[in-house]
From TrEMBL:
Gene Ontology biological process terms, A to Z: peptidoglycan catabolic process
Domain MurNAc-LAA: 75-197
SMART domains, per database record: Ami_3
SUPFAM superfamilies according to UniProt: Zn-dependent exopeptidases
Catalysed transformations (reactions): Hydrolyzes the link between N-acetylmuramoyl residues and L-amino acid residues in certain cell-wall glycopeptides
Superkingdom of origin organism: Bacteria
Keywords (A to Z) from UniProt: Hydrolase
Protein name: N-acetylmuramoyl-L-alanine amidase
Annotated GO CC locations: outer membrane-bounded periplasmic space
EC numbers, comma separated: 3.5.1.28
Record lineage: Bacteria, Pseudomonadati, Pseudomonadota, Gammaproteobacteria, Vibrionales
GO MF terms held by the record: N-acetylmuramoyl-L-alanine amidase activity
Amino acid sequence: MKPLILLDPGHGGIINNIYQTPGKRSPIWSNGSQLFEGEFNRAITQGISQILTLHGIENKIIVPEREDISLQTRVNRANHLAFQYPNHRCVLISVHANAGGGSGFEIYTSRGQTHSDIIADHLTRAFRHEFPNKPLRSDYSDGDSDKECDFYILRKTKMAAVLTENFFMDNEIECCLILMQPQGRQKIIDYHVQGILAWVQGGK
């Protein structure tokens, strides 16, 4: 079966210089810079989409708008697309930047052993390859590295689904040197693409 990759850029973008999701932003750093998570998430998903298209892999960004689209609408769009492509292996990847103190990368799936764990493993290995010296925030209590959570977009979508948290936007080093830099963003895009390609080639 052909793959179909659904990409979800979390939260809202910037419209008329107004950021759409309260709180989803970094502090204003000493150099005057500030990260808005919705802008970051959109840049990453657009980069992933462009490279997947070059590889001939069908993909859809489920929130092309800059506005903050509700979780229910995101889920409905993903499920509708999966219904429209019944002969495809479908996976949804929701892209975010983390906050709340800390460093590194983590990936979430819904609870229990599902096909989501397979794509999560591929993305985790690709992250380690691109960022060998950065922390992997993992939970091996169930035998794999992903964390399990009841996030709405993971519970309600009718396909394998993962949510990536890409470094911490309230960590000045990670925000200014990775999340806000073209080279850092490209490496984040690349690890997503490499994980997806490994999943596609694995045939599961």
